[in-house]
Amino acid sequence: MSIQSVDVKYTAVATAENGRDGRVSSDDGKLDVVVNAPKELGGSGEGTNPEQLFAAGYSACFQSALGVVARKEKADITGSTVTARVGIGALANGGFGLKVALEARIPGVDEATAKELLEKAHQVCPYSNATRGNIEVDLAVV
């Protein structure tokens, strides 16, 4: 697979201090959070963690991609939601990896249409494009 060229319109900048037991902040001050490893990974679980931040970003981005696709398909997705579940665990060959489940609730359309919209959004979403072929991403209509 070749690397795609991107015409960058915006660049987010965030800096982490002390990894999973520290702080992450954006250069514009809009994001400034304490991060701690979750209890399941031996941490205090008191702050947020990178997987929650990734889930937040992926769900918001995917919801926007769903909106782009829905407008093009003239589908009503009013009241829809997208939930991202990001799991972390050990890889068989060493190191750690992620697994994502995206769950969409789209009350304004039938299940077949909802599944079609999800598949199309998965082709549009920048997070989906970044993770494709690297991690497992499951799509579900709930």
UniProtKB/TrEMBL annotation:
Taxonomically, the superkingdom here is: Bacteria
- Family statement: Belongs to the OsmC/Ohr family.
A Pfam family of the record is OsmC
Q: Which PANTHER family match?
A: ORGANIC HYDROPEROXIDE RESISTANCE PROTEIN-LIKE
Any stretches that span the bilayer, and where are they? none
InterPro entries from the UniProt entry: KH_dom-like_a/b, OHR, OsmC/Ohr_fam, OsmC/Ohrsf
What is the name of the protein in this document?
Answer: Organic hydroperoxide resistance protein
Lineage, opening ranks: Bacteria, Bacillati, Actinomycetota, Actinomycetes, Kitasatosporales
